[in-house]
Specification:
By secondary structure, the chain is α+β, with helices and mostly antiparallel strands. It has helices at 6-15, 20-29, 38-73, 180-202, 209-216, 242-249, 263-266; strands spanning 75-76, 90-99, 105-113, 116-122, 130-137, 141-145, 149-151, 156-158, 161-166, 171-176, 267-268, 273-274.
Amino acid sequence: MIEIPLEGFLLTPVQKICKYPLQLAELLKYTHREHRDYAKLQTALATMRKIAMLINERKRRMESIEKIAAWQKNVEDWEGAHLLERSSELIYSGEVTKVNSNGWSQERMFFLFDHQIVYCKKDLLKRDVFCYRGRIDLDHCDVIPLEDGKDNQFNVTVKHAWKLHDTVREKWFLIHTRMDSDRERWLQAFQDERRRVQEDKENDFTIPDHVRQTAMNMKPKKFHPVKPGPGIQRKISQMPFPYQHEIMNNVPTRVALPRGVSRNEAVDGDNKKWAWLPFRNRKSKR
């Protein structure tokens, strides 16, 4: 007989949680509807399916908070409370146009988390870097779809738009997208966010304080290059950023000489070295 320690017996029920719905479903399949235990088996099957789903959801949510903490550390000029103090997952994100109180349009990246929205401005030089611009509390916010046309409050004409009304701060946000399908996806995402918040409340889901603090204090992982082995050539990029390649690709291979400069004047003696280049001044005659 195989000896199993006490820890093994305690872990066995946890490992079999996902198997219980399959066993109950098979048992229910061969149970007559007139049997006195049929209704109880239906209730047990529904309960075990819900428990298995909650376990998988909580495991996914625990993995999500680490990604959220790492994402926030890459956002520049962050202000206010940490994301993990209220949110635990990213529901939707995309680029929209936000109209400010003066009627000016601003391109912004909106990130829809549970309980709040964070909107950022894209950095023009750094790749995949965002600058924090603000947040909207969704627990005290109304989402109002708009018809295409002129909005009298902001005095602008918009299409595929909606408003967000922060009822606590009494602040209004006017947002629109390029296509109507994008707006519909955003409106659906707002409904999904409210539904998930309600489910978390019903299931009493909260992030443990020690898990939250661990994710907040986690240092970003640094990249350590691997030393190449024998026979492996290491490629070193002299231009790691895409905009550098674009600049060098736009440099012309042949350059027309300025007016008044002949080919003979541009050649320096017998060495045949060009004295005039697009990034260099013409040599002065000695």
